[in-house]
Each structure stands twice: as structure tokens, then as C-alpha cells.
């Protein structure tokens, strides 16, 4: 093979790598190809008891991490109700599963408010509720690539936010995304599939 041909092939390989990187960043590649994108990482939040906790709350269990707020009228209670059903559908495996609600409303979601909200018997039994100040919430949301934005003024303002749920493996790493429109049965099947793959699962 001539040196000229080798040089051309090398240039093509570099160009392909650059274009692939641009495609991932711009969202051209599908969700499965982007599974390797960094989701999650270190954070510090406050639990309902007022204690500072970090990403270690995810270790040792499969965690469905969802961002919402206690005044949310639809998406948040619907998601938590669904996760309560998923927990039951998992049967004995439910002991290795938890739902994690991260508030995106630091102005109203005090630890006391979070404690009262998650006491709903229709919500998962294994439910971790996290809140914090504005900076803590912002850092955690950015780590999970979650969008949120306050809308309106006064005490009745609302917060627009992403509706997806991240399934994190017992190592605290992304296993897959659980779409909002999944039925409890479909969500439970995806979680069970990930559990079968083990703690290093990267898709389900």
C-alpha cells in the first residue's frame, strides 16, 4: 500500500472521529449511542431529616432518579405513583430498588415539606427525597443533564422540568432512561432486564 493511500486513510479516520464527536454533542446520534455520555456524578443535597447526603445514597441499590417538586400538579405525582406500582411488580427484587426524588424547587421544598409529601402511601416505600439550596439543586441538575425553569411570580409559581427518569445501577452509573410514557409493567420489565445484566449494565 502506497504512502499516499495510507495518508488518505489516516485523514479519513480522523475526519470520521471528529464528525462522530460532533454528532453526539448535537444529538444526531440516537439515545443508545449516547449511553456513554456522562450522566450523574458527585452531588450534595439535603434529606428530609435535614442531613447533608451525597451520591453515596445511590450505591448498593438500583435507583430510579427523577427530578420534580412537591407542588407539581401532574408529572411528578404520576411518576411517583407509577414507581410505587413498579416497586410492587418487582416482587422480591424490589428490595434492591429505590426511587430518588430530587427537588427542583428549593424555594418551597424544605426538608419538612419533602418529608410530608413523600409520606403518600401510593408512592414507593423505598423513596429517597432530596432537596437543597439553589446552588445545590443547580449543580445536581447539571450533573444529570436535567432542564428546569421557574415560571410565574408570587407563591403560585410553577417549575417546568424534564420528565424522564434515570435508572442508575448499584455503582451509581447510568443503566438506561425510563421514559415518562412507559407503563408500570414496561418500566418494571426494563428494570428487571438491567438487573439481569448486573451492576455494570449499560442498557436495558
Helix and strand pattern: HEEEHEHEHEEEEH
Main sheet makeup: 5 strands, mixed
Cα(first) to Cα(last) distance is 43 Å
Work out the helicity level.
25-40%
**How many individual β-strands?**
9
- The count of helical stretches stands at 5
Mean pLDDT: 85
Spatial shape: globular
Q: How are strands sequenced across the largest beta sheet?
A: 5-4-3-8-9
Structural class: alpha/beta
Round the Cα radius of gyration to an integer and report it: 20 Å
The low-confidence parts are: 5-36
- Fraction in beta strands: 15-25%
Q: How would you describe this structure to a colleague?
A:
- This protein is an alpha/beta fold.
- The chain has 5 helices and 9 strands.
- The strands form 3 sheets. The chain has a 5-stranded mixed sheet with strand order 5-4-3-8-9. Strands 1-2 form a two-stranded antiparallel sheet. The protein has a two-stranded antiparallel ribbon with strand order 6-7.
- A hairpin with a 5-residue loop joins strand 1 and strand 2 (52-54).
- Helix 2 packs across helix 5 (184-197).
- The longest helix is centred in the N-terminal third of the chain and has 24 residues, at 3-26.
- The protein is globular and about 45 Å long.
- The model is unreliable at 5-36 (pLDDT under 50).
Amino acid at each position: 500500500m502506497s504512502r499516499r493511500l495510507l495518508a488518505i486513510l489516516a485523514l479519513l479516520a480522523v475526519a470520521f472521529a471528529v464528525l462522530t464527536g460532533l454528532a453526539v454533542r448535537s444529538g444526531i446520534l440516537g439515545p443508545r449511542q449516547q449511553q456513554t455520555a456522562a450522566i450523574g456524578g458527585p452531588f450534595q443535597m439535603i434529606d428530609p431529616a435535614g442531613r447533608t447526603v451525597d451520591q453515596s445514597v445511590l450505591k448498593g441499590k438500583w435507583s430510579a432518579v427523577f427530578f420534580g417538586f412537591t407542588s407539581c400538579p401532574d408529572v411528578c405525582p404520576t411518576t411517583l405513583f407509577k414507581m410505587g406500582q413498579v416497586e410492587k411488580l418487582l416482587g422480591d427484587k424490589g428490595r434492591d430498588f429505590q426511587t430518588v426524588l430530587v427537588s427542583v424547587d428549593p424555594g418551597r421544598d424544605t426538608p419538612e415539606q419533602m418529608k410530608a409529601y413523600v409520606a403518600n402511601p401510593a408512592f414507593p416505600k423505598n423513596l429517597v427525597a432530596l432537596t437543597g439550596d439553589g446552588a445545590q439543586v443547580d449543580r445536581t441538575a447539571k450533573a444529570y443533564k436535567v432542564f428546569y425553569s421557574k415560571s410565574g411570580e408570587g407563591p403560585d409559581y410553577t417549575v417546568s422540568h424534564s420528565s424522564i427518569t434515570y435508572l442508575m445501577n448499584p455503582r451509581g452509573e447510568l443503566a438506561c432512561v425510563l421514559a415518562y410514557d412507559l407503563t408500570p409493567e414496561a418500566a418494571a420489565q426494563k428494570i428487571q432486564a438491567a438487573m439481569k445484566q448486573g451492576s455494570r449494565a449499560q442498557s436495558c
